[in-house]
Write a structure and sequence with these properties.
Strand order of the largest sheet of chain B: 1-3-8-7-6
Strand content of chain B: over 45%
Radius of gyration of chain A: 13 Å
Structural class of chain A: mainly beta
Number of strands of chain A: 11
Largest sheet of chain A: 7 strands, mixed
Number of strands of chain B: 10
Shape of chain A: globular
Structural class of chain B: mainly beta
Distance between the termini of chain B: 40 Å
Radius of gyration of chain B: 14 Å
Oligomer: heterodimer
Number of helices of chain A: 0
Chain lengths: 114, 113
């Protein structure tokens, strides 16, 4: 298995533009997580899905952020409109279930909003 | 939500010495206690985990100990090597249905050759 796949790996955009980050979890994993990592705030859980259903989105910073998981092999995190303070590394992770299981992280997307 | 604290935030040790990182948490419902390692510019990766019905677990040079009563667990690395230099995160959480996962702020470990 190729592991968790994220695209793009790097994204540079201007304030106000829409940004879409993509994630393909490991086949057979039922839980998917989106994280944001910055120096100031560390690693934050934004949202997680179990069996394609959003379970907890309390970490989503505001309405500009939205996430979807239309099927078991694909998820998106969208920011619209983007702001400079959204600049961070965004990780997607998947695990077999959401209990007692190792989370496998993707390589991350480094987002820079100018 | 869960309050998670890691100590120390930075740690420097000589190669061959031991390193200990402590994680304290607030949610008594937490029942899974993993440690992740993140090398510079890379993704976090699980290095060891423990469940609440176990007090200690070892895997070669690394070990995790859990004190549920005091609500803390620790990562122990013995015979440290330069490749152990990284940021280590704890992420205690409870199970399905009321999923609470908070990563600690991280501990930057530097192993000096």
């Amino acid at each position: 298995d190729a592991g968790v796949i994220q695209s793009p790996r790097h994204e540079v955009t201007e304030m106000g533009q829409e940004v879409t980050l993509r994630c393909k979890p490991i086949s057979g994993h039922n839980s998917l997580f989106w994280y944001r990592q910055t120096m100031m705030r560390g690693l934050e859980l934004l949202i997680y899905f179990n069996n394609n259903v959003p379970i907890d989105d309390s970490g989503m910073p505001e309405d500009r952020f939205s996430a979807k998981m239309p099927n078991a092999s694909f998820s998106t995190l969208k920011i619209q409109p983007s702001e400079p303070r959204d600049s961070a590394v965004y990780f997607c992770a998947s695990s077999l279930t959401d209990t007692y299981n190792e989370q496998f992280f993707g390589p991350g997307t480094r987002l820079t909003v100018l | 939500g869960e309050n998670v604290e890691q100590h120390p935030s930075t740690l420097s040790v000589q190669e061959g010495d031991s390193a200990v990182i402590k994680c304290t948490y607030s949610d008594s419902a937490s029942n899974y206690f993993p440690w992740y390692k993140q090398e510079l510019g890379k993704r976090p990766q699980l290095i060891i985990d423990i469940r609440s019905n176990v007090g200690e677990k070892k895997d070669q040079r690394i070990a995790v100990t859990l004190n549920k009563t005091a609500k803390h667990f620790s990562l122990h690395i013995t015979e440290t090597q330069p490749e152990d230099s990284a940021v280590y995160f704890c992420a205690p959480h409870s199970g399905a249905g009321s999923y609470q996962l908070t990563f600690g702020k991280g501990t930057k470990l530097s192993v000096i050759p």
